[in-house]
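Below is just one:
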Amino acid sequence: MSELRAIVMRADLERLGRFDPVRVRQRFLDGFVPQNTRVIVVAGQDVGLIAVRPESDAVWIEHFYLDPAQQGRGLGSAVLADALETRHAGDDRPFRLNVLQGSPARRLYERHGFELEREDAVDVFMKAEPLRR
C-alpha cells in the first residue's frame, strides 16, 4: 500500500517540488495504523485503502488512495460516503482531512461537504460536519 501511495501522489508532489521516492513511502509506513484502515477490494483485487482516525475533537480521513485505473468511476465517492456515514449515535465530532494544493481529489471532498478550514503552500485542510440523521 505504500507503493500505491507513491503512485497516486507522485504527480501532485512533483508539481509541488516535494516528491521523494523514499519519503513518500516512509511517511505512509510511519503513520499506518492497521485497525484504522480498510482495504478497498474490487473483483478480489486490492485497489486502494482509506484510514479513519478518531481523535478527541475530530475524525480524520487519512491515507485515502485509489489505484488510478479505478478512479473516475464513482468508487472513491462511494467509499468516502460510507466512511462519512459510519458513525456511532451521538458522535458529533467533525471530519477533517488534508489534501495537497491543486489536487483533483479536493473536488471529491467538496462534493461530500468538506469546506476549506485553512491552507498553506503545500496542504489544504478541510472540515465537514457529521451527517445528521
Notes: The mean pLDDT is 91. Helices lie at 2-15, 21-31, 75-85, 105-111. The chain has four helices and six strands. Residues 6 and 24 are 6 Å apart (CA to CA).
